[in-house]
Every structure is written in structure tokens, then in C-alpha cells.
């Protein structure tokens, strides 16, 4: 009975806890929160100072008693207490203005492939402690496919490549399940680190991760285009310790990220090679669905297509495909039962 009361007063929520961004989807409303997975905490009082964009602006600029933390690393919870604060803040924000005093929502949460039982339990416990009455887990590639409106329930093979901030998930899906897969830590943040390393080694200048990400977004590409692009960047001269402005080109960025891009392409190739022979024809016909922030890197789809001789399609709005998949599952309990990752939990009341 208590569960029914909680259900009538609380909102069902789909959650994508990403390394870069945390996105919350509310049933019948759509995406209501899409913020960087960053939290600023006052270490003296243990209180939240800022969350999301506001916290990201504070990075590298805080006094000693303000700690800016990214509690999600490689798609899994690395700081349990801070993650719980982040999730609770978002759940309370979603229910702000409603008549719910203590929100107890039903939640569907995407998780990376190859997550350990300890990491899985950390996700469940953090979301439960933040107020959820139900926690259903769904593998990221499956959520991506559902968010892209693919029919997973037939015996036709489909392939999904989700390139997030902290991890890349690659999966061949048929009959609502994952047939073959690959999971690696090489992803968007690895591109940022590669850009930082390249600039340090070739320009004797250090830049922050925020600057590297900005470069990647503005002029990053994996194949040459007809028009050259360049960008002015400010950093610290390693020889003098003073600020310095310099220019970097898209060609140099392609060279910087060449290795991590190659790692992902090789992993996609390996996953195709390991897929059952009966599904190869389906994959060749349907192609590869590319999603996540990495899908926005210019030319990534054409590079994979050229290397594997297969069609590659970038999903519409690749940054939100996973959470849209969880949102669809909020309305389809039968499909949820079919694709739900083992180990989800429902609290007794």
C-alpha cells in the first residue's frame, strides 16, 4: 500500500549517470536535467555548493575548503557519498513544486558493460539512498538501441557503438539480448588527455582538461576535410611558467587523437569478427549505429565505415540516446522485463 502511495506522488525517472554528464528523464515530460557530472562541496560543512554547470565553472578556481569532484569515472561510481548527493539533489529538483515531501520514484538506470558486482551494487545503493523505491538496471548499448527506436525483440542482428566520456560500449544485439560485445575505457576523456599530451610535448605548453575538451569540440576531427580549421588557445608556458597564446590546427588534433581513435576502431572490428556467422549478413545490411558524445567527432562514422566496409549511421541527438531509451522503458514494462540487466532491485514497503 505504501508503495502505491509513493508511486502516485513521485515521478518515474530514467537516469543516465555518465562520466561527463548526468541526464534525468521524467515520464510524460522528457529530459528535465542534463548537467555535467560535477559537484562542488564545502569540505568544512560537507554541504553542496554547486552542481553541474555551476560546479564545472569552479574547476581550478576554488579555495582549499571547496572541493570540485567528478564522482562518476569510466561510467561507474568512484565516490559513493558525492554521487549520492548529486543524485538526491537532482531527484529533489525534479519534484520541487510538487506535493511530494519525500520523493520515492521508480527509476531505470543505464550501466556500462563489464560492470562488476561491487560497482553494480554501488549504483543501486547510491540511487536507493537518494530516495528511489525501485532501481532497474539496463545495459547502455541496449538503452541506446531502444532510444534509437530499434526493434530488439526479433532475431535480426543489430550493432550499437556507444562512445561516452569514460567508456565505449560495443554490442551486437538480437532477441532483446547482447550476443557479443566489447567494452573499453578509451572514450571521450581519453581524447582530451591525448590532446593535452600532444600540446605539452609539441608546444611546451600545458592546458587544462576543459580547454582540451573545447578544442576537441570546436576543431576535432578524424578525417581531413576540404577546409582547414585552426583555433587560438591559451595555456601555461612550461619554460617560463607564464601564460601564452598559441594556434593549433585540426590536422594536429587528428594526429593527437590518432591512437585512441584507432583503439576504438579495432575494438569495433573485433566485435564484428566475434559475432555469430548467422548475424553477419544482418549487420552488413543494417550497419552500425553510432551514439554518445564521441559520435559527434567529425568523420568518425565515415572512418569506421571505410575501415570495416560497412554502413555506419549516427543516431539523432547522440548525447541523449541512452536516457531516451530509459524513458521509453518507463512506459513499457513488458520490454523492461525482457531487457533488464540482472541484479535490479525493488524495495519492500
Model description:
The chain is flat and about 60 Å long. Helix 6 packs across helix 8. Helix content is 39%, strand content 27%. Strand 7 and strand 8 form a beta hairpin. It has 349 residues and is of the alpha+beta class. A 6-stranded mixed sheet has the order 3-2-1-9-10-19, with helices on both faces. Strands 13-12-11-17-18 form a 5-stranded mixed sheet, sandwiched between helices. A 3-stranded antiparallel sheet has the order 5-4-6. It has 3 domains: 2-34 and 83-142 and 321-343, Nucleotidyltransferase, domain 5 (2-Layer Sandwich), CATH 3.30.420.40; 156-186 and 263-314, ATPase, nucleotide binding domain (Nucleotidyltransferase, domain 5), CATH 3.30.420; 188-258, Actin, Chain A, domain 4 (Alpha-Beta Complex), CATH 3.90.640. The chain has helices at residues 2-9, 53-57, 80-94, 117-129, 140-147, 188-203, 209-219, 250-256, 258-274, 277-286, 300-308, 321-330, 333-339, and strands at residues 13-17, 21-26, 30-36, 39-42, 47-51, 66-69, 72-73, 76-77, 106-111, 134-139, 158-163, 168-174, 177-184, 205-206, 230-237, 243-249, 288-291, 312-314, 345-346.
In the CATH scheme, the class of the largest domain would be Alpha Beta
Mean pLDDT: 91
* Count of discrete domains: 3
The helical percent reads 25-40%
Task: Note the beta-strand portion.
Answer: 25-35%
Largest sheet: 6 strands, mixed
Poorly predicted parts: 343-349
**General form:** flat
Q: What structural category do the secondary elements indicate?
A: alpha+beta
The count of β-strands is 19
CATH topology of the largest domain: Nucleotidyltransferase, domain 5
Question: How far do the termini sit from each other?
Answer: 8 Å
Tally the helices: what do you get? 13
**How much is the radius of gyration in Å?**
21 Å
| CATH architectural category of the largest domain | 2-Layer Sandwich
Name of the CATH superfamily of the largest domain: ATPase, nucleotide binding domain
Biggest sheet strand order reads: 3-2-1-9-10-19
Amino acid at each position: 500500500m505504501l508503495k502505491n502511495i509513493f508511486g502516485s506522488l513521485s515521478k518515474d525517472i530514467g537516469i543516465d549517470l555518465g562520466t561527463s554528464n548526468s541526464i534525468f528523464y521524467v515520464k510524460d515530460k522528457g529530459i528535465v536535467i542534463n548537467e555535467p557530472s560535477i559537484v562542488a562541496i564545502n569540505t568544512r560543512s560537507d554541504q553542496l555548493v554547486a552542481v553541474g554547470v555551476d560546479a564545472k565553472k569552479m574547476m581550478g578556481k576554488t579555495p582549499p575548503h571547496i572541493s570540485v569532484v567528478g564522482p562518476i569515472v569510466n561510467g561507474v561510481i568512484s565516490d559513493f557519498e558525492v554521487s549520492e548527493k548529486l543524485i538526491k539533489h537532482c531527484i529533489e529538483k525534479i519534484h520541487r513544486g510538487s506535493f511530494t515531501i519525500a520523493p520515492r520514484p521508480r527509476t531505470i538506470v543505464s550501466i556500462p558493460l563489464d560492470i562488476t558486482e561491487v560497482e553494480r551494487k554501488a549504483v543501486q545503493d547510491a540511487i536507493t539512498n537518494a530516495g528511489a523505491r525501485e532501481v532497474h538496471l539496463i545495459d547502455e548499448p541496449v538503452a541506446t538501441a531502444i532510444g534509437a527506436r530499434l526493434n530488439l525483440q526479433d532475431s535480426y542482428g543489430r550493432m550499437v557503438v556507444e562512445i561516452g566520456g569514460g567508456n565505449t560500449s560495443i554490442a551486437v544485439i538480437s532477441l532483446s539480448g547482447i550476443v557479443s560485445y566489447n567494452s573499453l575505457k578509451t572514450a571521450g576523456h581519453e581524447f582530451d588527455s591525448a590532446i593535452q599530451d600532444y600540446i605539452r610535448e609539441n608546444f611546451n605548453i600545458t592546458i587544462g582538461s576543459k580547454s582540451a575538451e573545447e578544442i576537441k569540440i570546436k576543431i576535432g576531427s578524424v578525417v581531413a576535410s576540404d577546409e582547414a580549421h585552426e583555433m587560438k588557445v591559451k595555456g601555461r608556458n612550461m619554460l617560463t611558467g607564464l601564460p601564452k597564446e598559441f594556434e593549433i590546427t585540426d590536422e594536429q588534433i587528428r594526429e593527437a587523437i590518432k591512437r585512441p581513435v584507432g583503439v576504438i576502431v579495432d575494438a569495433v572490428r573485433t566485435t564484428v569478427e566475434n559475432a555469430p556467422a548467422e548475424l553477419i549478413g544482418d549487420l552488413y545490411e543494417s550497419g552500425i549505429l553510432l551514439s554518445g558524445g564521441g559520435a559527434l567527432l567529425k568523420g568518425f562514422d565515415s572512418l569506421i565505415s571505410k575501415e570495416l566496409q560497412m554502413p555506419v549511421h549516427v543516431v539523432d541527438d547522440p548525447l541523449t540516446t541512452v536516457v531516451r531509451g530509459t524513458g521509453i522503458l518507463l512506459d513499457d514494462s513488458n520490454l523492461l522485463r525482457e531487457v533488464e540487466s540482472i541484479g535490479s532491485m525493488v524495495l519492500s514497503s
